[in-house]
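Protocol step 4 of 6: structure prediction from sequence.
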Amino acid sequence: MATSRSLRRTNPITLGLATILTIGFLFFIFSTPSDPSPSKKRTKGPDIAANILSPASLPFKKSGGDESERPPPVVRYRMNNVTTTSDPIGNRETILILTPLARFYQGYWDNLLQLSYPHELISLGFIIPKNWEGNTATSQLQERIKKTQSGPQKKRFASITILRQDTEIPLQSQSEAERHKMQNQKARRAAMSKARNSLLFTTIGPTTSWVLWLDSDVVESPPTLIQDLASHNKPVIVPNCYQRYYNNDKKAMDVRPYDYNSWVDSTIAQSLAEKMGDDDILLEGYPEMATYRSLMAYMFEENGDPTKEVQLDGVGGTALLVKADVHRDGAMFPAFAFYHLIETEGFAKMASRLGWTSFGLPNYLVSHHLIGKICSIQN
């Protein structure tokens, strides 16, 4: 007697096979690879890239002339796993510290070494001008790098990149007086923008969580600098920058506001911009161009809360922490008049246009000494 079609449909073997196939299909669709994402898989030290086309986050070592070069690897990065949180150490978030460097200061390098953030999660990037002073700085930097990277494991950084600046240097003198002349600002800051962009685009990797821009003059800071800034979990955040100097009237060391690039915009500044030509820029801190912006340099409160935040429209670059996603979205340092702003101030404007907000810490002081002097950060 022939089996009916309805009975064949409910055959236990058929149902079993269908169930196994269904489970297998669902497992294939929703399962994740057993190997962790490169952003989470960290070792005490990075591997050496086998090929120059390997991921930018790995250092590349050239092979000898008689060695056969291995093909570049194919690596898949799950960008959703690259976090930026208020607990960067707990979440093993990688930090890229970038420094435009015209002169080398031993104190700056010593300061990097004493940062308490795990060095295996820190990559360094430098861009140095191609001139006599830059050659000297490069030689000094390479000596320290060699000593550090061959020393104790805990002091070594994940990777270090040195770029030699390929753009024209507008100012041959790096004296503080020459650097801050108003007539030199547009050319100087345009060159700085190009250097920053070259350094950023060359060094940022798919596993980078945060980018810390740090001036080469900062030679003393709290060991917890990175954690302090990241704990606010803001897209762009900057401390207040002061300068230590000898006050002849007091016959003692004193402090004064230094970085005027962190500010809240004003209607007067906006009116000035409306009357400017397309290529003209607004500058802060010059009596010839009074903008009446609210400068974070003057928001400091004696014994004030160092965690106090203010929303900013412009930022300076002495110690500037940026979520890597802000840069990945396209926020860079304009070397041209962008809404009549340039370099770090233009960066804040560009980040804002992309939907990212900048913040400042008026009571977290970054002391920036005269060139050649000591800088310190007070918390």
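Step 5 (inspection) to follow. The chain has one domain: 81-378.
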